[in-house]
Amino acid sequence: MSNLMSEDSVFKENLFKGKKVFITGGATGMGLGFAQAFLNHGAEVFIASRKEDKLKQAAEETEKKFGKKLIWKTMDVRDNETVVEAIEFLNSEWGELDILVNNAAGNFVAPIASMSENAWRTVVDIVLDGTFRVSKASYPLLRKAKNGASIVNIIANYAWNAAPFVGHSGAAKAGVLNLTRTLALEWANDNIRVNAMCPGVVLTENVKQNLMLDEKTAKTFEDYIPIGGVTNPEKMAQQVLYLCSPAADVITGDMLIADGGQWLVGNAFYQMGKKFLDE
Q1: β partners of residue 195
Q2: Is the overall model pTM greater than 0.85, yes or no?
Q3: Run of H or E including 199
Q4: What CATH number was assigned to the domain covering residues 6-278?
Q5: What is the pLDDT of residue 262?
Q6: I want to staple 183 with a disulfide (CB 3.0 to 4.6 A). Which of 5, 95, 111, 194 is the partner?
């Protein structure tokens, strides 16, 4: 469970006071870290995910730990009906939306040669199509934000740098990067900024399970990360807070790479995958 208190942050405690924030994939991992960070900086936060038990657990533990409440609802980004229902719920609760973080993701290790069409479509549907669905459905609420709105799409450095065994995710996230820039242009007149954030290697439970990483294996990534090493949701939350803050009010259509420089040395995922390819 993430534990980002405002005193650990470089940002003012009430920086996002009164702001309404929607985070997909917000029940666990980085998504929950983002949610708690916004809560601890004064925002009202709505999280959505497929699993009700995870959402309940996230809300209960967040309230117990921080004394602050998360709003939540089940939603599957692959199912447009549930996306529309979530937005209708937000409209009835808030009537506007200041910040959207498209964090929902699907990923697992699979070589292209043996990847099923269903595996490919599942990841693309979650990552790329899901970002499209949620962004489009949120647009009417985002354009109502009194002082402009912000979207942050979570991608990965293999979106442009490539890595073996995650071709489905890489292709989908490359699409998200292009969509980010397209929306930045199309929605600029509505004062909606759209950016992407590229995290480093974050050892969440989902990453451990889906990418077959454990603490020992993750440490080998350190050789391919120039600075910062394997990171955590708390540090990544700071990057998202920055992109949504007034300090970034002239930044749109861009991506913030927060991977410790690993993409400069050929991508840690590639270097790790190469070991398996060479064996």
Answers
A1: 152
A2: yes
A3: strand 192-199
A4: 3.40.50.720
A5: 87
A6: 194
